[in-house]
Design brief:
single chain; alpha/beta; Rossmann fold; 5 strands; 41% helix
């Protein structure tokens, strides 16, 4: 399943190896990736027009709670890289979906598919 070419993923923070891996997976999935080292304002996020906002870990997601609140009524999906043990906490912090460790292309693609599938057809 390939997203439309205008699909953008905005990654907030992260280490260079994770950023490289996300860029590779995103390119294979039809996404353009933008990376910011610091947590942006909601206006800056909207200006970059992402369909997905990715946090590399729970700590960064937790630090961005003001931004998550400001984006609550937007159509931007919030993703976070986490472990299975931290999935419930990630949801409490506002993540729509988790990219579970170890991060694989199949796992990345499964999350993209879940995001693109209308809720009425999910079981």
């Amino acid at each position: 399943m390939k997203p439309s070419p205008e699909s953008n993923l905005l990654m907030i923070g992260g280490d260079p190896s994770l950023a490289y891996l996300i860029e590779r997976y995103s390119e294979q999935s039809g996404f353009q990736v933008m990376t910011l080292s610091d947590i942006p304002s909601a206006a800056a996020v909207h200006a970059s027009n992402p369909s997905l906002l990715l946090f590399p870990n729970l700590e960064t997601l937790e630090a961005a709670q003001g931004l998550i609140s400001d984006l609550a009524n937007s159509d931007i999906s919030i993703l976070v890289c986490s472990s299975v043990a931290d999935e419930a906490r990630a949801r409490e912090l506002g993540a729509d979906h988790c990219l579970l460790h170890p991060l694989t292309y199949d796992g990345f693609l499964a999350v993209l598919t879940a995001i693109r599938t209308p809720k009425a057809t999910q079981s």
